[in-house]
Amino acid sequence: MKKSVIRIAQVAALSLSVLALSAQAQTRAFDPKVYQQMDTNGDGKVSEAEYRNFMEKAFDKLNTSGDGKLTPAQSANVLTEREFALLDKNKKGYVTREEFMTQVMNDFRKQDRNGDGFLSLN
């Protein structure tokens, strides 16, 4: 069970983090299982705080070295080299927590199409 939760977090965090980088970003939907995990209060929508919390935990799970730097090796199962390069804004060969969180929170705002501060499955 723990492995499947970690895998879902890995896939969700990094696939969602690159949504804004993809031409398909506007048409890709949330996996309902991932969405349910993000919606921690069960109200049927994901707030910015829930999204941030989920993504911070996902980064921590991926960053197995615990040094705050996500390497290509740590993300190889969920990111292509190109996607990793797009996240690596400063081109140092790793993605910092700040780079990651900046991207995923920008993605949140882009996915919040009606601007209400929440994401929904619809």
From TrEMBL:
<protein>
    <submittedName>
        <fullName>Calcium-binding exported protein</fullName>
    </submittedName>
</protein>
<keyword id="KW-0732">Signal</keyword>
<feature type="domain" description="EF-hand">
    <location>
        <begin position="99"/>
        <end position="122"/>
    </location>
</feature>
<dbReference type="GO" id="GO:0005509">
    <property type="term" value="F:calcium ion binding"/>
</dbReference>
<dbReference type="Pfam" id="PF13202">
    <property type="entry name" value="EF-hand_5"/>
</dbReference>
<dbReference type="InterPro" id="IPR011992">
    <property type="entry name" value="EF-hand-dom_pair"/>
</dbReference>
<feature type="domain" description="EF-hand">
    <location>
        <begin position="33"/>
        <end position="61"/>
    </location>
</feature>
<dbReference type="InterPro" id="IPR002048">
    <property type="entry name" value="EF_hand_dom"/>
</dbReference>
<feature type="signal peptide">
    <location>
        <begin position="1"/>
        <end position="25"/>
    </location>
</feature>
<dbReference type="InterPro" id="IPR018247">
    <property type="entry name" value="EF_Hand_1_Ca_BS"/>
</dbReference>
